[in-house]
Amino acid sequence: MTKCKVCRSEFVKRSMTHKCCSPECAEIFGREQTKKQVAKKEREETKIRKEKLKRLADWIADAQVIFNKFIRLRDRDRPCICCGFGEVGGSNREFSGWAVGGDFDAGHYRSRGSAGHLRFNEDNCHKQSKKCNRWGAGRAVDYRIGLIQRIGLERVEALEANNIPHKWTVEELKEIIATYKRKIKELEASRANG
Q1: What pLDDT was estimated at residue 95?
Q2: Based on the domain organization, do 85 and 181 belong to the same domain?
């Protein structure tokens, strides 16, 4: 016995595609399915129209949000790159608490404004306390010291020497968004598994 998709009464299925107990219920079920399909198609069309209206700056902002989330997840068990806040067992474990968005940003060593071509470079971006990033003007000297400890002097000097400008394209930004969404999923899955 199977339950009818419309009236929920029990009936005997005659085939795998048999979903309803009567022709009346089948008609209602068909109309509901058609409405769902139309609504889904409308949502897809709206999404496509919205994407066409997006400016390059909108795509950059969307990619930055995803990239920053990845950085905070990647470095979640590490302290602030500048001051060491958040270090397990550290004396500065307590923080005043920033209610919105937590205590940390994804801070860039070379700022997005002065080195926009490095905005999505993983070596250039690390977990940084909001206090250091926003009110400490990035604490570049302390950031550099912490960066050398994490990635080594050679890679830090390579970041500092990289001054090749880059103009982002929508296709590149879509790829960045897809890549970092995938990486976020992998990090979240690894966190859940162990």
Answers
A1: 46
A2: yes
Could you tell me which residues come within 8 angstroms of residue 138 by beta carbon, excluding any fewer than 6 positions away?
107, 108, 109, 111, 128, 132
Same structural domain for residues 10 and 61? no
Q: CA torsion sign, 131 to 133 to 137 to 141?
A: positive
The three-state secondary structure class of 128 is strand
Residue finishing a domain among 33, 52, 71: 52
The amino acid that residue 46 corresponds to is: T
The whole-angstrom separation of Cα 167 and Cα 145 is 30
Percentage of the chain modeled with pLDDT above 90? 58
Q: What three-state secondary structure class fits 103?
A: coil
Instruction: Return the half-sphere exposure (C-beta side, CA atoms, 13 A cut-off) of residue 23.
Output: 0
Q: Please tell me the pTM assigned to this model.
A: 0.73
Q: Are 140 and 148 in contact (CB under 8 A)?
A: no
Task: Using DSSP bridges, classify how beta strands 125-129 and 2-3 pair: parallel, antiparallel or unpaired.
Answer: unpaired
DSSP 132: I
H/E stretch holding 73 reads: helix 56-74
